Amino acid sequence: MGKILAVVSTMPERVGGGAPIFIVETEEEQQAVAFLLEKILDGNAHDLKNGTMILVDHKD
Asked: pLDDT by residue (tens digit) across 8-34?
């Protein structure tokens, strides 16, 4: 089971919870922020195809 490290979204009204949430204006900014966080947090970015990407740690 993976752990959600961060959420990057263009739709602030659709996200919430305990992980850090990064709100961005465009899909291009979303991808740039998610892929930068992917490297910083040593996680994997997953596009949910609904304006939201999550960064997940799949290691145990």
From this structure: 999 999 999 999 999 999 999 999 999
